[in-house]
Batch of 3 targets.
Target 1
Amino acid sequence: MKTQVIEKLASLITAAFGLVAALAWNSAIQNIFTDIFGQQSSIPAMLIYALVVTLIAVIATVWIGKIAEKSKKHLEKSKRHLI
């Protein structure tokens, strides 16, 4: 029971830090967007912002997935050499 509580607490703390990081990136991207396009809160500007952020998220997710896959293959290869 104690181990499960510690594991869940670690997961929640990690998720909280992830949320804080996401909010920080959101603020940074909004400021960059405002610098480039000016202070606009119209629906088209908000849609462009959402599309840009979505595109960045998709590219980052694919890139991180490729890195993780390479790392996984490298680790499996290393384990085979140890046996």
Target 2
Amino acid sequence: MIKSFFSTILAMFCFLLLETAVFSNLTYLPAVPDFLLIITLFVSLNNGIILGETTGFVSGFLLDFLSASPLGLNALLRTILGFVFGLFNDVLNSSSILLQ
């Protein structure tokens, strides 16, 4: 679990830099994709509540430092989303490409 946590944090940091430095400066892109939220939801669906909450908090906290939003707003929202999607860990069958 610790290995997956640190690899997720590294991936989130790389996508955070890509999202804020590259995709936010593209003028022909109408909206910036939120890769941190996608990573958080993927990790929480595959690993459960604990890792979903922690990755949600870390991704929100990193995003709060690089944006103009109040400190803790993104961290709170992404922690709640990580918890809620972590509840669906045992419910959803994500072993195949097409979900049943």
Target 3
Amino acid sequence: MGTETFGARLRALRKAHGVTVPQLAQAAGVGKVTIWECERGEVAYPRMDTLILLADTLGVTLDELVGRAR
């Protein structure tokens, strides 16, 4: 994994898809606070079920979402 934090990666992917935090939260079925906390680095990683919802909503793999290089 690179030096980019999960929060920075999530923010970059969200912005690349042109959605706001409230829009992503609603589409993924997760709380806005969860996304804000992740993006600010208050949560290193959310629960696995939340990661899956975010990845599916953003159309990326879990590896891409967490910045895991192969």
